[in-house]
Amino acid sequence: MAPAEAKKVRQNASLISTAAQYGVPLTGIMANLSVFSNVVWAGREHDFHRIINETNVFHEKDPLREQVVSLLREWDFGLSDVVIEEVSFTNPGSAEITKYYMPFGVHKVDNQEAKRIFTVESSGTQGAYVLLSYLLPALAAGGVAVIDELEADLHPHMLSPIMDLFLSSSTNPHDAQIVFTCHAAEILNLLQKSQVMLVEKDEQGCSEAWRLDSMKGVRKDDNLYAKYMAGAYGAVPQI
Questions:
Q1: What residue spans define the domains of the chain?
Q2: CATH topology for 3-26+34-190?
Q3: CA 4: distance to chain centroid?
Q4: Which tens digit of pLDDT belongs to each residue from 106-138?
Q5: Residue 77 and residue 124: Cα distance in Å, rounded?
Q6: Residue 45 carries which DSSP code?
Q7: Which of 26, 54, 15, 225 is nearest to 147 (CA)?
Q8: How far apart are the C-alpha atoms of 142 and 117, rounded to whole Å?
Q9: Residue 201: which of 238, 230, 147 has the closest Cα?
Q10: Which residues, listed in sequence order, are joined to residue 99 by a DSSP beta bridge?
Q11: What is the pairing mode between strands 177-180 and 197-201?
Q12: Residues of the chain with pLDDT > 90: what percent?
């Protein structure tokens, strides 16, 4: 790139986006990665619909079902298994019958098993199941997982094992990436300043976003969580 052109590049522009603007062929491949997301035109889609729709992911790909069962066991949701069965619903106002694949959580207590439909599991269990229906395909094939409200219905301690899925080469052999929004400030303990974007809404209802490493005085070894909670970076609600 000529020096005169280099001066036009914004400081917060990524290498990939800048190269794409100049027609570098490789960026076209990188920009066409598979994207797995829970975001629709109206925002984050409701988990009940995702339970039904995304169960097809696990029904059609048994290795992913085995992986989600393993993780839900490991993450202390009280499940010994998740089985997928075909169920029938009569549509309201008509005799038409619709068939779905529905997950059932299997719980084992005192050597006895009880199976119950997933829609009566806790919101945290449902949320983790739905979240993994986006993350596991991205990890298996490579690409990008775009998640709105990563922490929704989950305990803050769940954020670390979710991040670990992307940080470990054994669970992320194809270098998949995750881009997410989050209201749980604890996530700052798991990220570097270059990985954080803050969003603040002004009195007119307009939102401004900036990357944390674009702020002067933010050190690499700063306790990002402590400083954010103290209000050093802004982007906190005025309550």
A1: 3-26+34-190
A2: Rossmann fold (3.40.50)
A3: 39
A4: 999 888 999 998 888 888 898 899 999 999 999
A5: 8
A6: P
A7: 54
A8: 31
A9: 238
A10: 88
A11: unpaired
A12: 52
